[in-house]
Queue: 2 jobs
Job 1
Amino acid sequence: MSEQLIHSAPSFSPALFRRSLGDALEMVHGVDAVAVEERAASLAKRSLKKEAKVWGLNLAISMIDLTTLEGKDTRGKVIALCQKAMRPDPLDPTVPHVAAVCVYPAMIGFVKKALAGSGVHIASVATGFPSGQTFGEIKVRETRDAVAAGADEIDMVIDRGAFLSGDYQKVFDEIAEVKEACGPAHLKVILETGELANYDQVRKASLIAMFAGGDFIKTSTGKVGVNATLPVTLVMLEAIRDFYHATGKKIGMKPAGGIANAKLCLAYLVMLYETLGGEWMNPDMFRFGASSLLNDILMQLKKEKSGAYQSGDYFTID
Amino acid sequence: MATTTDIETRERLTPGAASSALWDYAPSLEATDHAKLASRYNLFIGGKFVEPHSKRWFETINPATEGTLAEVAEADAEDVDRAVKEARRAYDKSWRKLAASERAKYIFRIARLIQEKSRALAVVETMNGGKPIKESRDIDIPLAAAHFFYYAGWADKLEYAFPNRNVAPVGVAGQIIPWNFPLLMAAWKIAPALAAGNTVVLKPAETTSLTALLLAEIIQEAELPPGVVNIITGAGGTGAALVNHTDVDKIAFTGSTEVGKRIQRAISGSKKRLTLELGGKAPNIVFEDAPLDQAIEGIINGIYFNQGHVCCAGSRLFVQESIVEPIIRKLRDRIGTLRVGNPLDKNTDVGAINSRAQLEKIQELVQSGVDEGAEMVQSKCSLPARGFWFAPTFFTGVAQSYRIAQEEIFGPVLSVLTFRTPEEAIEKANNTPYGLSAGVWTEKGSRILKMASKLRAGVIWANTYNKFDPSSPFGGFKESGFGREGGMHGLSPYVRLS
């Protein structure tokens, strides 16, 4: 179990990869809902104890995109979040920093200052987040400006309207354009699976996002009724595996929204481990989009060390 | 080390994409201290545990450690006679006369007691049989309770199961069950018999008698009238004595086709009724439009569930030629992630082989596959030094004529064959003396229906495999046996209609 793995800052190589929509649609096939839910439930039953649990929880912290995406976000709120991101537990230096802080574009400036030199990445949503219902040029422009302002990673949303009406070419082209606008920044493509109706569509959208140039595929914005679920994540991980076998390119995965406790995040890691394996078990290849998850993990880690649960008052609310 | 050492492994799997040694799950063992076992078990006859006339006991072991768990009585012909007499007496004196709604109450009580004691039953089932605790905990024991609940519901509604007929019980049923699902098979046998008003003499398999004996304790606790259920332990000789006893009205047997044939010969010309649930060599057929990753899970569950000790295991995989490459790759990666080892570990996927004899049979058949020229792929998992183990294995390049495509291996060994058209799939799938079960994987509904109508098998699963429910009948075609267990159909063998 490699310590260095947890502490290493995420590093990416620029992706030059691009193929056509046809390549993506060729790999589309049905997903059986009953069976995929059953498999996800069986993976969630793995029992992790002691060292295995502590290792998983530390790894999970290093994979968190600590997120605040609210209209009422302020400079003060964002700076506080950055402090938490860099030192999740100020009293315990063995706890790693999180992978990134994820904010709206207007907040990038504050985050950049607060995180300077820390190794924690700056992630910004873009492309008319969360609905994506704006003009194409504005999506590209927003992406470019966010990168110029200092974002290392861009979390874009796909055009669900186009996807659901069958205009896959539009979805594909938009992702490709945003990828180009990202330049050196890393692109995460949010499918908003809660709006895609079924697992067949999740697989199709995953393949389109990967073939169009996304570096990561991400489940949700956190802004709709249904966010990340284990079965949806499994379908996406399986699409990543098929894409890897077809192209040799490794795509990252980010479930987001609703992952609020340590037990659930371990179930995600088990699923990742038993589907894609060790090479995906690092912050370059897997992220959790979350806000309240971090404190629950810290609470569990403290419990493993001291043998007793501490009151919530011992964990800072940021 | 009783493992695969004597087998020339053609290819040892490099851990698949999904199984590097990066993350070691720490052992997570199910506690065993709450499961209390006696050092010696006697025969359960007439509501009491009695010493065997034979004055012989044999050891029953944990196949994962080879350690002895307890001593179990060996019933001889005299003991069998005692048990049958008690069953007859209970039948005449109490059980057949009891109001059906009262019978139902007793059966409900057994179901509830199984639920209450489910943790201990699961642990003992795993220790005595070698199956992973997650299976005994989540499948065997809950399903056993579900069968009692289900048939308890039928007890006072038999005239609705057989409308316009007079329904009467058959009498004394002699029931012989196998070692692969010990408590569940006991439930399959006992529950419908009791619901229909019969009394029973049950003989569990000699390697896995313990949960049946715990069930005897439950039956005592449920205060069933003495003799309604008798449980006698022993090996083949005990079973033969039960089959040949002249005062038994019905024999129900689950086990090998070979023994099933012997039983049928033995009782021919007698008034005894018979149901047989025997071997299988089930086809699991995957079409190119199948949901592939879920099909892989179905294939894995079909053959590695309970170490492949499943009569309806999907042991012949038929893959449409256009998807052979991805299926084999996915299968190869997936068996590398199966966790083989201590059955009491909650994370174990594949446990111990039930007995040394069964391990040797598996090894012999696997060797024949290698000798006949099939390509072997085997998980590189490490196997414990003590106990009986066999790594998850599959063969590619299997011809229909190979022994591994014809004979029931009853172990974690899959034979992969290919087909081009649905007609060819049906022809090859049916080309076996067996006909217990089959699986079909396709997104096309009409194809599922067509395949289901052409496959000669008692159970056909579509886009799933190895699913069981008390309300669903189970049984075979051809040499897989006759008669149905489960569902309304499962009552038929235990009633006399007029």
Job 2
Amino acid sequence: MFFALSTGELMERPRLWQAVHELRYRIFVDEMGWEALARPDRLEIDQFDHEEAVHHLVLRDGELAGYQRMLPTTRPHLLTEVLQDLCVGTPPCGPDIYELTRYSVAPAYRDGRRGMSTVGTELIAGFIEWGMGIGVDKVIIEFQPMWVLRALQLHFLATPLGYQRAYGRQQVVATLLQFNGDTLQTVRERRNHFLPVLARNRPAPAGYRLAS
Amino acid sequence: MVQFDDTLECINKIQRATTVEQVCAELLAVTSRFGLNALLAGTVPGPDTPLDGQKEHVVLCDWPLGWLQRYVERNYVDHDAVVRHMKRAPGSFRWTDANTQEELDAGSREVIGDASSFDLHDGFAFPVLTLEGTPIMVSLGGPAFECSPEQVSVVSLVSTYAVGRALQLSAIDSRHADKRPLTDREAECLRWAAVGKSEWEISQILGISEHTSEKHLLNAKAKLGAVNRVQAVAEAIRLGYIN
């Protein structure tokens, strides 16, 4: 199940909030080696977890299996504040563009190292549905260059925003991805799952834990 | 800045290309500035792939024709040090590095010598991973290859967009590939179905059995990729079988 929560709604669910920040720490500090984010409490939190951030969660059997954070580009975000050297020229911004950050799939929900996990593609289907519902049709993503090909295979219209650079243990390239109904259809065909994934309700306030 | 705008413009042209040949031409327009004027991108065939099966592995190709023929005829893929290096240590590397790092047998020396005779002296190869997790090897070559690390990343980025566009185009092709044209009888049955005739009525009009008219309609439905008769009729109208 895919949920979109405001920061306030996430904070009303302390177990889930904890699971989110633990997952982010595990992925971005432990796995990707973004040392600047390291903290003794092993929670990854930054200045962009503000009230206008939107948290996308994939829950499976009471566990947090996947996560991504959407930031409005109408206020400061990673590309304008932290990753400026990934952008050549003026960063695109506007109410129709969000920045997708902290894309994470818990290790137990990755279907092997190659290909795409179902949780991973649910995050993609979810942000397209979420965006199309509120008039957002573009996201800025800072990802590994190998994702460019995957994005094109999913029928995103992709535009690089700058050159790739080393970040932590990875090469990263900032890319603007535009999507429409054809993109959603292609993602659904790939997943062989045609029903909407975005939940209309909110997850129960208690009882969630982070997947292994 | 000027250089980046240039890169963007190339990527835009690649994404607007409507044929794989156009994609190749746009990519080579960028890479030839760095001495890379020949291109092959494809999945790496297994050792026992029959010669005529090798074509299916190719995603993008603008190799000198004589070189390509010789490569396929002599099954160079099994001896090419570049291919061997890609299988052993996937990553980006120069051809000359593969040639010095791999153990060369007589076959691989022949490949290197022959490549030179087609003015392919050095080049650059790297893998890209598809959604399915299949590695596609991109190999670019030419008379002399001079490229800074920044330029290498431009070449690999533009190449990735080119491979992506080629895969999009072949996906579009395969959507239409199963769509054999309707036979006259299948189209005729659909035309009657479109005006509300039952299978029995159609069989009476055309002087065929009810079973045959049903079969024609089922075939038409399958060829049009339709899930029901209404969609088949709509698709037949769109394709001009019914006006």
